[in-house]
Amino acid sequence: MPFLFNSSFGLKLGVRQVVEEIIRFIEAKPKDSYKIIIGTDSEALVSKDADFVTAIVVHRLGNGGRYFWRRIELGKFHTLRDRIIKEVLLSLDVAKEVLLELKKQEIPSHWDFEIHADIGEKGETRVLIQEVVGMIRASNFEVKTKPESYAASKVADRHV
């Protein structure tokens, strides 16, 4: 069974349904510009297992947005690096699924696509910036880190 995303309306949606909702949101104001953003955050549990929350955000630039999120619990992660790399891999997997669905549709507007990584110049994750940014760029995605990575550090973080 695929992991389903939660909507703000309490619905559980597959990736295809999330993309349909994104398209409806864009079609409401097709002349505006949009960003479609994927970000993942995680939290280590006492058991050393980790909860991962991935958010799909559609941002109508200058005029709000919508988001969808899913939580999955994975096995033990003994280092912060392993957990951050898993966050990035989950974001990349979702990004590829979303783009595959988007390519099947004709979207009437200009939109950009980004992956937001929950790392930054301050704190423990600063040593991972080069590696994480390289992974994301190698997959041909635009990347944002803290403080600009709000899909991971704010949206996904709300549900972790």
Query: Structurally, how many domains make up the residues?
Result: 1
Indicate the overall shape: globular
Q: Give the strand tally.
A: 7
Helix percent band: 25-40%
Q: Number of helical runs?
A: 4
Order of helices and strands: EEHEEEHEHEH
Largest beta-sheet details:
5 strands, mixed
Give the termini separation.
Answer: 21 Å
The portion of residues forming beta strands comes to 35-45%
Question: If strands are numbered along the chain, what order do they take across the biggest sheet?
Answer: 5-4-3-6-7
Protein name: DUF458 domain-containing protein
Organism: Candidatus Jorgensenbacteria bacterium GW2011_GWA1_48_11
InterPro entries: Phage_KVP40_Orf299
Pfam families: RNaseH_like
Features:
160 residues, alpha/beta, five-stranded mixed β-sheet, two-stranded antiparallel ribbon, 4 helices, 7 strands, globular, Phage_KVP40_Orf299, DUF458 domain-containing protein
